[in-house]
Write a structure and sequence with these properties.
By secondary structure, the chain is α+β, with helices and mostly antiparallel strands. It has a domain of about 140 residues. About 50% of the residues lie in helices and about 15% in strands. The protein has a five-stranded antiparallel beta sheet with strand order 1-5-2-3-4, sandwiched between helices.
């Protein structure tokens, strides 16, 4: 019995000595063991980085432009409310309401040149020039993107816009919808143009406040190669 206990004691001593004197895992093994659980998170972060870096330049421009427009729109609405309140306080019952410019001199939509934005009301030439310069490149991109799926897409795009503006702040497109004589109802193109319009800032209406403008853009069929 004593011999058996002595043997067990010797075995326990040997095992304890081995445990305390065994070599530590190598640095490579430790690194692998430490990084393996975190690998899925690292891969997800890398995928997000690739997606962010791959964001189209157009999407970046629209996002930044929409953010600027939103800030400007809030400032314009605040300024308009303050101006209207001041005007109401100083107006007498006999004072007429201020009038807005009429729509005389409108140009026929059929006269609209391709690759240009035409002011159909005829009295917003300054605004149509700015839109042609700032918006037309974005509209061309919309047309090119949509035409990949709808190569037959042609016709006159007519949009009725409401402009909000303040002479000290600038102007923005407040609302837009297809106008009379519009020939293009493709939702993808309309949405793309809408996003583009809501990402640009404009000169204010000449009298400030609200103004309406009808724009037309003619899309011709692709030129034969």
């Amino acid at each position: 019995m004593r011999n058996r206990l002595a043997l067990v004691l010797v075995v326990l001593v040997v095992l304890g000595a081995w445990w305390w004197t065994r070599p530590a895992p190598s640095a490579v093994e430790a690194a692998v063991a430490a990084t393996t659980p975190a690998q899925p998170a690292a891969e997800a972060a890398e995928r997000r980085t690739r997606l962010d870096d791959g964001e189209p330049e157009r999407a970046r421009r629209l996002r930044d432009g929409a953010a600027r427009r939103e800030v400007m729109q809030r400032r314009i609405v605040t300024a308009m409310a303050a101006r209207d309140a001041a005007a109401a306080a100083s107006r007498t019952p006999a004072d007429p309401e201020p009038t807005r410019p009429g729509k005389s001199g409108a140009r026929a939509a059929d006269d609209a040149p391709a690759d240009a934005i035409l002011d159909r009301t005829g009295n917003h030439g300054y605004l149509s020039r700015v839109l042609s310069r700032e918006l037309m490149p974005l509209v061309d991109e919309c047309h090119a993107l949509v035409r990949e799926e709808h190569p037959e897409l042609t016709g006159m795009l007519v949009l009725d816009l409401e402009i909000l503006g303040d002479e000290d702040i600038g102007g923005v497109v407040n609302t837009l919808e297809p106008g009379k004589g519009n020939e293009i109802a493709e939702p993808a193109l309309l949405e793309c143009v809408r996003e583009s319009l809501l990402a640009v800032t404009l000169p204010p209406p000449e009298q400030g406040g609200r103004d309406a403008i009808s724009l037309s853009m003619r899309f011709d069929p692709p030129k034969p190669e």
